[in-house]
Amino acid sequence: MSTPREVFTISQAKVPEVDGKMDQDHHDTGYFAVSSTADLTPMKRAGSGTEKERDGRATWLLVLSGMATTFGASLPVGYNIGVINAPSAVIQKWCSEALLQRYSITLTPATLAIVWSTIVSIFLIGGMIGSLAGSWFAHQIGRKGTLIVSGVLGVVAGILFLTCKDPHLIEFIFIGRFLVGLSSGLITGVMPMYLCEIAPPNLRVSDGCPMPTWTNIWRCFLTVYGHELDFRN
User: Fold this and answer.
1) What are phi and psi of 57, to 5 degrees?
2) What single-letter DSSP state applies at residue 41?
3) Consecutive sets of 10 residues in the chain, 233 residues long: mean pLDDT of each?
4) pTM here?
């Protein structure tokens, strides 16, 4: 039976041979390709961090994941932020008609301003709750599971927006705005975390940045296009 000193000597003797074999090999992990030195002992991994970062490269799965999450999650966040500005006069008129028809309540300009400010700000309340709950959801159901939940919330809110007009269900506007705020808060908190974790260390910055970039691009587009439609009308 080998003594601890002998075991240490044997392990040291085997490291160069393993090193030589590992350095010639690269394995594709799916999201990115890294050097096989990642499979060595913790002591060796600590010394090969620079080499691992140099060898990390994007794969088609990483690019597809980034595009899907960016366009499928960032754009709805920017849309829900900017879409409420241009049609404000139309929505306020509809709110007055809905309350008059369903509850026989006539809104004054002051009370209409309160209703409208509540519709706008309830999105922020949902976003705050979603951002605070993002870490809990990410720990309980994972990053992808949290993004799926946020997508389901966005779909439910969209259905509420589509079905509220003719029955004059003003409650659906409040619930829908809260749900899209909750969805947006989850996305902004979890999606950059997900993208940075699936990317190799040398690509984490470039992989995590598109989310806020495309959110602001879509918000800017909606603001400009919405004012153009308002000007045409």
Assistant:
1) -145, 155
2) -
3) 43 41 45 46 43 63 84 85 84 93 93 95 95 94 94 95 92 96 94 87 77 80 64 48
4) 0.72
